[in-house]
Structure formats: structure tokens, C-alpha cells
Amino acid sequence: MFITRTLKKTTGEDNKKTEMFMTANRSVRTGLTASAVISSWLWTTALLGSSFVGYDYGIAGPFWFAAGCSPMIVFFALIGVSCKKKIPEAHTSLEVIRIRYGRVAHVVFMTLCLINNIFASANMLLGAAAVISVMSGMHIIAATFLLPVGVTVYTFVGGIKATFLTDYFHTAIILIIACYFSIRAFTFEEVGSVNNLYDLVKAAAQRHPVSGNHAGTYLTMTSKSGILFGILHTCSNFGLVIMDTSYFIKAFSASPSSVVPGYTIGGIAYFGIPWALGTVMSSIAIGLENRPSFPTYPRRMTSSEVSSGLVLPYAAITIAGKGGAAASLLMTFMAVTSTLSAQVIAVSSILSFDVYREYFKRSATDRDIIRSSHAGVIFFAAFSAGFSTMLHYVGIDLQWTLYMLGVVTCPGIFPMVFTILWRRQSKAAAILSPILGMATGLAVWLSTARKFGGSVSVSATGGVLPCVYGTVASFLSPILYSVVITLLKPQDYDWSEFKKERLALEKLDTPDSSTLHSLDTSILENGDKHLKSSSVDAKNLKKWTRIAFFWTVATFLGHWVLWPLPMYGSNYVFGKKFFAAWVIVSIIWLWITTLVAIFYPLFDGGVQQVLVIFRRMSGKEASIEGKNGTPQEEPVVNEAGKNEALPKGSLDQK
Question: Using an 8 Å Cβ cutoff, are 46 and 303 in contact?
Fold first, then answer.
């Protein structure tokens, strides 16, 4: 909140303006975009889930968790740059749906996006509240309701820019703690080295063979349950990305030249977090579970403790005592508040732009939309806490929501992608295919749960196989429905129709409305006297589209096909040297990610901005906001080389 106020005073960033509150004036640079993308996937699920799938499936679990995240983050670079090119003034993905297909499709996709946000938030809160309750003794419902409070306050005040800034600080803290665990694990006297950890994990497999793994060992990628989880997790995460309006908001908030590199760097860097953290901490839990230093000794962890996400905090307590408990608690808190902020701002954008502005007040002003956004922030924070409480009392935990998410998040993926990339998809296909896909997924999920579990209960519907079948049905069936319905009467949409719709509430910098010009994060050049434009022409956007497509294919093939599948098919069991290399490379990747997330935003204009802000705060340079809070005049050099006085912060500045 202090930073938000300081930025308003020194650089003129006014969060009472809708474009600033919702899209940060579309000028966030590559470094901060990459950091925000990494943070967007630093869910409590990623930290806790990657550890418990490692405990359940062995070395394959954390790898498939990571491989199920990075390809779709990179893929979103393609979606994001396509949106920047075709509809640069949009605030949410739902505005794109409404303009192309009308209000019926708009309501259908709005419902799907809200379902996505509700279940994603519940997934985060259930895991975080369980860990906080066990670590601190706080009642789990108190934790569930208190977690969104701080998020509500800073999101209410700062909007999307506050989300970007807190993403940065929270991500830095989480990654520093993760790096600490990666060192502490091998300095703990009962482990001592990577080779000793290998021996501990190998011995654990002798005591408790893993069902479905080759030779019953934890030390193999040939894990039937592991690869099923990989399929499930990959499909689910495509839904969580494409149907989450917060990803579109962050793409619209980035400058055009920052979308592709930001999402590509962020997606590839993110891979190392669940891979390294999940591998190290699950191996610690597996190997030391029979030692007095483990919190549950002499018994093993119960299935309820594992599914609630307690593998990571128990491993942290084992290697670092109370300090480990505090570190895991802080890490969980940072993760849930950071990612919940993105969910809150996403839902508030839907309620303000897609509900209030579209159906209640078409002539809504900045003040009206900001007020409705504030109401949306408060409403969704309270609703998500209440919904999570309901799930807790019916016996649903982190594992259940992690496994079944894809059933409800996947039906809209391809209809949404086709809306942005395929001009032929018809209105009927866009409306019917996600509805039919949802029905198909639910039917397959519940019927297979009854088949394999004997009943439609919480335990049966939370099984791996029913969730895999249901998720794949929800993921793939809309492709068939959309293509078949489209072939009956295809559309030939003219992409230029998007630009005819005026969506931004502030004046645009260019006649073709292709970009917005912003004061807040533009880097001052020529001795910090003039502003550098962030506009990118159509030719460069086409270039970025090709680059995004290349990295999308390369990341999927690398992380999902060429690397893991040969290891799965070969029935390879890790030797001591290979395990050591596997762990060390994952830790190196984690440390590189930490450097990218913390230092890249600083080198990419952050330091220069801080210096400008410091000079203005100290009075060495005039601030944007005058004594009475009004914009001051600043001489600006025009094309003829003459000085002109333009209002500071004006979007007409050059």
C-alpha cells in the first residue's frame, strides 16, 4: 500500500483510473512479467502438491508436476501476443468472446471462468489452511477466512499493479526459502550427501514397495500412477491457464514486446521449482520417515496427512526443527496470498467489466468501474473462504481438488483458443461445445468413479483413474463438438472487427488503437528527460507470434515427450550417480529461477525506476503529483525540437 501511494505521488500512477487499476496502463516490462508469471504458478498446490506426489509416486511425481505446468505457460505467450495484436484494448478474455459471439456465449464463458476461479481459490485455501492449522494450532476455518484478508486490502487499494508488486516480493521470499531447503537437506547430519539420500530412499522402497512402479521402487520414471497424474495435471493446468482471466489481464498489462519473452522465460524457469523442491523434500520424507527425527515417528504418515499436503512441512521440521516449521509456514502464506490476489483481481474484473459495465451501466465512468471492482474484490474474497469451508466440512481436501479440477476447468479451453486463433469457429460451436464438453466430462467422471470405487462418494470421485478419464473427456470432447458444429455452418470472421469496439476508458496513443502509452514504467532516456514509447508495430507482433509458436512446441516436446517418455518406456531404475545428477541439475535450475525472478526485474528497468522515484521523493526532481494532488506541467520536446507543456502523466506525451 505504501509503494502504491509512493508511485502515485512520484510517477503519477493513479489507481483511480481504470486502465491503471486493471491493466497497469499496459506497460509492464519483461522482467516483472516473467516474475509475475512464475508467481502465478507458485500456488500452495505447487509447493505442497509436488511434495506429496513425490511421496506417493517417487521420483516421477515432482517431474510430472513440473512438466504439467511449464508447457501451457509458454503456450499462453502465443495466446497473449495474438490478443495484443487483434484486440489490444481488451481487459478480459470475456470481452473477446462477447464481441465475436454475442451475449449468450458471453454468459456461458463467464460461468466457466467463474467456476475456474472458484475451484482454483478453494484448492489454494484448503491446502494452505490445513498446513497453517497443523503448524500453528490455529483453527482451520479461522485460517481459511483470515488468509484472504490481507489480499483483499492491498488488491483493493492497488489493483493489478499491487498484484505485480506483491507477486515479486512474495516470489522472492518463497524462492529464497526453497533454496535454503535445497542446502539444508544435505547438511542435515542424518542425510549428509546426495549419495546418502539415495541410500535412504532405496531402503524405504524395500520396506514399502510402490504399487504401479517398476520393481516397486521410488527411483524410476516408470510409474503407472505417475504418468496418469502427468496426463491429468497437464490437462487440468491448460484449463487453469486458458480459463483464468488473471492470465489474460497480466498479458494485457504487459507491453507488447514483453508478452512473449516474459511468458516464455517465466514458464521455462518455473519448471525447476516443483521439480527441485518436490524431489528433495519428498525424498527426505520417504527416507527419514522411520527415524525419531520425523514428526510422526514411529508411525508412517496417514493418507489424510499426505493428501492434506503435510509432506513438505513435516520434511522441513525434520531437517530444520522449529525453523523449518516457520519457514514452511511463511512459504505457504506467501504462496496463497500472492496467487489468491490474482484470482481476486480476475473475478473483480469479470464483475466490473463483464457484468456491471455490460449489463447494468454501459456508460460507466472510471469511478463507477473502480467502485464495482472494489465490491468484486471484497465479495469474492468472502465467497472463496465460505466455499472452501463448505468443502472442508464435506470431507474434501487438497488432493481431491487437485485431481478433479480439470473436469470443470477444461471444457472451455479449445473453444476459447479457437475464438482467438481460428476465424472459422461458429457462434453455435462456441456456445454448445463447452456445455456439451462439461456434460461429457462430468458423466465420464461420475460413471468411472462408480465403476472403480463402487459408489459416487468423495473418496471414489477423488481417485486418480476417474479424474483422469473425466478430465481427458472434458479436455478433448469440445474439439470434436466445435469442429463438427462449425462444419455445418462455418464463420469467416474478420479480425479487424475487434478493433472497432472501444473498450479502453482512456485516450489511446496511436490512431489504430494498437497500443497504450504509459508513464509509469517507461524508461527515461536521453538523461532521463524524455519517455520511450512502448508501441510495437504489426510486423514485430507477427515476429513475436512466430517466436511464441516455436517455444510452445519446443517446451512441450522437451518437457513432456523427448525427456520423460523414453525413461518411462525403458523401465530404467536410477543408479546412485544418475540420481545425484538428477537432484543436482534440479537444484541448479531452482537457483537459476531464483536469480531470474529476483534480479531480472531489477536489471530490466527496475533499478532506474527506483532511482527516479528516490530523486523525486528526496526533492531533487519534481514529482508528478503537485502539492494539491494535481498534475504538474512539464516541458516536452516535440518533433520540431520546441518545448511544449503537456500535463504530466498525459497519454498524449511523446
Answer: no
On whether residue 379 sits in a domain, the answer given is yes
Q: Which of 321-335, 482-496, 498-512 has the lowest mean pLDDT?
A: 498-512
CATH, residue 497? 1.20.1730.10
Q: Are strands 633-637 and 530-531 parallel, antiparallel or unpaired?
A: unpaired
Helix (H) or strand (E) holding 636: strand 633-637
Q: Which three cell numbers stand for residue 365?
A: 465512468
All residues at 6 or more sequence positions from 80 whose CB lies less than 8 Å from its CB, including other chains: 247, 248, 251, 254, 259, 260, 263, 548
Determine contact, residues 278/60, Cβ cutoff 8 Å.
Answer: no
636 falls within a domain? no
The number of distinct structural domains making up the chain is 1
Q: Are 559 and 64 in contact (CB under 8 A)?
A: no
Please choose, from the candidates 245, 385, 279, the residue with its C-alpha nearest in 3D space to the C-alpha of residue 64.
Answer: 279
| 427 C-beta neighbours (distance < 10 Å), count | 17
C-alpha distances in angstroms, 149 versus 44, 79, 450?
Answer: 17, 32, 39
Percent of residues, the chain, with pLDDT higher than 70: 82
Closest CA to 225 of 532, 463, 490, 499: 463
Alpha-carbon dihedral 373, 379, 385, 390, rounded to 10 degrees: -140
**Could you give the residue ranges of the DSSP H alpha helices within 557-634?**
564-569, 576-601, 607-617
Q: How far is 610 from 340, CA to CA, in rounded Å? A: 27
Radius of gyration over every alpha carbon of the chain, rounded to an integer in angstroms: 25
Domain span at residue 299 reads 2-623
**Residue range 536-581, pLDDT digits in tens:** 456 777 888 888 899 999 999 999 999 999 999 999 999 999 999 9
User: DSSP 3-state assignment of 92?
Assistant: coil
Task: Name the H helices within 87-193.
Answer: 93-101, 103-136, 140-187
Given a contact cutoff of 8 angstroms between Cβ atoms, the answer to whether 39 and 170 are in contact is yes
